[in-house]
Sequence to fold (362 residues):
Amino acid sequence: MSNNPYVARLIPQWVRDGAAYQVPDATGMVKLDAMENPYVWPIELREELAARVADCALNRYPDPHALAVRGPLRRWMNIPESLEMLFGNGSDEIIALLISTLIDSGRSVCAPDPSFVMFRVLANQYRVPFHALPLDSERDIDLDVWLQTLAATDPGIIFVPQPNNPTGNVFSKARLARVIEATEALVVIDEAYTAFTDADYVDWALRYPNVVIMRTLSKVGLAGSRFGLLIGDPAWIDQFDKLRLPYNINVLSQVAVQFALEHVDVLESQSAAIREERIRLTEALKARKLVVWPSEANFLIVLMPDGHAQAVFEGLKEQGVLVKCLDGSHPLMANALRVTVGAPAESDALLTAMDQLLGGGR
Ligand SMILES: *Cc1c(COP(=O)(O)O)cnc(C)c1O
Fold:
């Protein structure tokens, strides 16, 4: 029933005019579009996990507090005892939960622009105003504009990915500190890429009463388990926990995460391999006279010759390599492709396909 009148009565116009989150079909492709870890676990570990899954109580509701993963996560991430944790079905769910506290408050959400799209998408979904905080030409915090915007809009929450997606850089520590000290908003430092950088802001959640830290296991090989965490003063976490859906981390995910945390050496060596590959891929792209931005994440921004990004993106796709075209998404991202750093063979497939498109002599 394509024009069911009951739908229009319930679903507001802005939803009917909108579109669902788009994920391109990547069947059979070299998948370098979503910052996933390309590596699977050794077969012995997968068999051991299968046995654990076979034993788990799918007939029961999961542990609402996922107690089994708390200690191991705290140890792995060096989270001090004085900070508490809240888990989400991916950090997306945590972002949604945080923004939901602003419904009817009249206060807004702020995030850098360009940045992770879910901040804006979820603010819009909850009808919470969103203000973009521009980056300067070095893609760093444009401090004067940020301070003016924050003074003028008095937001409730400021999300700051560190390093930022899609620009890949870590913002100036001094400027971020100035922002935190100048605002009464909650500043959520989003360390989704913590495995690929030496930057670590967990102690800022101790130092500043208006800072919490968000992390995820999505970029270290567990994207499919959908597990994110918020780390902060119990005064914050206790309140947010009241808004969390009761059984938001399912049994299978808890088993997988617990198992993975017993093998953090595997996660760490895979992330280390990606960091190594980031160097190799950067050099290989630069050797082709392409501009590559410095990155502390598991992706690279590569600038295509002026006006060619969309065509190269399409050409790569035809050759079975899926990346993300950011040209047109923001003036700072003109001519930019975002390429996930994967396994060496995936980089080689990308480079071969690029040589085809841009001319092997480059
Ligand atoms: C990938 C990413 C996330 C992860 O979201 P999940 O829902 O945990 O998969 C969060 N923040 C940023 C900036 C990201 O790039």
About this structure: Residues 225 and 253 are 5 Å apart (CA to CA). The mean pLDDT is 97.
